[in-house]
Amino acid sequence: MKRITSMLLVIFLLLGTLAGCSSSEKLQKDRVKIGIMLSDVGLGDQSFSDAAFAGLGKARDELDILFDYRELQTVGSYEKGFTELVEAENDVVIGLGFMVLEDLEKVAKKYPEQQFILIDSVSELDNITSITFKEEQGSFLAGAVAGMASKSNIVGFIGGADVPLIRKFKAGFEQGVKAVNPKAEVKAAFANDFGNAELGGKIASGMIEEGADVLYAAAGFTGVGVLKEAQAKKKLAIGVDSDQYYYAEKAIVTSMLKNVDVALYEIVKEFKEDKKLSAKQIELGINENGVGLAPIRVIKLTQDQEKNLKDLEAKISSNEVSIQLD
Description:
Blueprint: H1 2-30, E1 33-37, H2 48-63, E2 66-70, H3 72-75, H4 78-87, E3 92-96, H5 101-110, E4 115-119, E5 128-133, H6 135-149, E6 154-159, H7 164-180, E7 185-190, H8 197-209, E8 214-218, H9 221-232, E9 236-241, E10 252-258, H10 260-274, E11 281-284, E12 291-293, H11 303-317
Parallel strand pairs: 1-2, 1-3, 3-4, 4-5, 5-11, 6-7, 6-8, 8-9, 9-10
Antiparallel strand pairs: 10-12
């Protein structure tokens, strides 16, 4: 009798375990799954990829979603990374950065029922939602701060590549500088590399030798080298994408915030609620909390300068100030 009772107990526990596993698998299957292919440098760029990762991390913690990611250095090509994320049955697959466009479209054509999101470029394919930012608006404000902060009337811009997206940063920055300091000269250079901090430091050093005392880089991890070189040479710098103050606390006056984390969190929230992506193309500027400035640190603006900066932001919001792109 004891033996029969023990066998029944084992069977009962086994059935309970199987039922629990089945329930857990169902809960896992019901949760929204998001996959993201990160930009070329990947995690640790202290900029674009890290910001996107933070936004999805927040969505996981607050919205109870699952997310997975791929990096170029491990998968070898964007196309392979996208294919893996689709085959892993993610509800939405995200491509981060203008450089992924071609490979993302290849995969999107193979999987027409899959929903994709493209950050920083625009696709015409029906199953891709494009999210872009008005980087020129935030960069205009960054340029205004640089123009106010410069003592030498020479400031510098370092871009990761000479491409339309980075030229938006450059155009906004140059026009912002001139709006508050018409006499200022803006030196510009392109690193042609988003992942080389040492190269960024060398370019920054050359600009500093030519008299630049405020530097702004839109160059991913290469830009981190610019920030650190500015601090080493006791000059000023402006961060990009996220608040980069903590990478060079004696140099960074502010950062041009490109709120990729906020954008991804909000679109994942929308998808979880509606089970679809409503817009084909989304463009985020100052009015949509897509771009802006981090707090002013290291220097103190005068009351007149603070007022001027607020006025310029209001004029951009109302389209009274128009930023000309190349």
